[in-house]
Amino acid sequence: MNLLSFATGALTMFWLVALLNLFYPFATPLGGWVNWAALLVLLAHVGELLLFRARLQGLPGQWWQRLQVLLFGMLHLQRLR
């Protein structure tokens, strides 16, 4: 297993924990930290989506590619080379 697929799996687990926290909130200090971390990661990925908009322009399944960038950020963009 290479590092890129490991990081993608770890980020998938993070998003699942963040989604779980929305439906079944964790205890007070941990739940707030998870929400803030998810917001910061999402904002960073939106920034990456805006920065690399031209790179995603001609790809098939453009909306699917953008969703992948929102979830995985640079990890997905590195696979598009």
UniProtKB/TrEMBL annotation:
InterPro entries: DUF1145. This is DUF1145 domain-containing protein. Coiled coil: none annotated. The chain crosses the membrane at residues 7-27, 33-52. Keywords: Membrane, Transmembrane, Transmembrane helix. The keyword Transmembrane applies. It comes from Ectopseudomonas composti. The lineage of its organism: Bacteria, Pseudomonadati, Pseudomonadota, Gammaproteobacteria, Pseudomonadales.
